[in-house]
Specification:
This protein is of the alpha/beta class. It has nine helices and eight strands. The chain is about 45% helix and about 15% strand. The strands form two sheets. It has a six-stranded mixed β-sheet with strand order 1-3-2-6-8-7, sandwiched between helices. A two-stranded antiparallel ribbon has the order 4-5. The longest helix has 27 residues.
Length: about 210
């Protein structure tokens, strides 16, 4: 039954398409059931020639309403971290592993619900198509969901974060999702986590710059 409900996105991904064509095609994707309750697909933002790609988990409430990734509180924090790392926002392409907002309704509120492995797998063809077009030097995975989508396996943030992982295509760096910082109660913990995120972004940017110079 699960296979019938989640056929995967591949049949909706146009071969050889650019980012603009992929974005249009994604609005018609029925690769899993998340499209139906969501307001709209949320595809990506940034230049298609970026050397650095940041991959998050999925759109949140504000992203679902506006149609743009990372415009909510976590996105604002990420923008601060990118600036603090000395990375020009014009040099970054941002997207998500899953393109529709998964949520649970509680009265008038829509509460974030983590996408399942089946949703990640169903949406992966879109991410792979994006990476094929952008051809980044480094892909930064913001959280375990992004890591699973990019690497195709379970990711342990604590064990793998902050290191450049080689392999076919772009190098990969695992770090925390900025939303995890927002859940921290103590200011000192948030500050330390923010500094760690900035350090990871600097490592990714340095690796991208080094690759460009080779």
């Amino acid at each position: 039954m699960a296979e019938i409900e989640r056929p995967g996105a591949q049949q909706w991904v146009p071969a050889g398409a650019g980012i603009a064509e992929l974005r249009v095609a994604a609005s018609g994707c029925r690769g899993c059931e998340l499209w139906e309750p969501a307001t709209q697909v949320v595809f990506s933002a940034g230049t298609a020639s970026a050397r650095l790609v940041l991959v998050g988990e999925q759109p949140g409430d504000q992203e679902d309403r506006q149609g743009t990734p990372f415009v909510g509180p976590a996105g604002q924090l990420l923008a601060r971290a990118v600036d603090a790392a000395g990375i020009a926002r014009s040099e970054v392409y941002v997207t998500n592993a899953v393109k529709h907002f998964r949520f649970t309704e509680r009265g008038k509120r829509r509460l974030h619900e983590k996408p399942g492995i089946a949703h990640i797998d169903a949406c992966r063809p879109w991410l792979h198509a994006e990476l094929d077009v952008v051809q980044p030097r480094v892909v930064v995975c913001l959280g375990a969901t992004a890591g699973r989508s990019v690497l195709g396996r379970e990711v342990k943030i604590g064990a793998e974060r902050g290191r450049i992982l080689g392999g076919e295509g772009a190098a990969v760096l695992i770090t925390a999702h900025p939303s995890s910082l927002l859940r921290m109660q103590e200011p000192a913990d948030r500050d330390a986590a923010f500094d760690a995120l900035v350090a990871d972004l600097r490592t990714a940017a340095a690796a991208a710059a080094q690759g460009a110079a080779e």
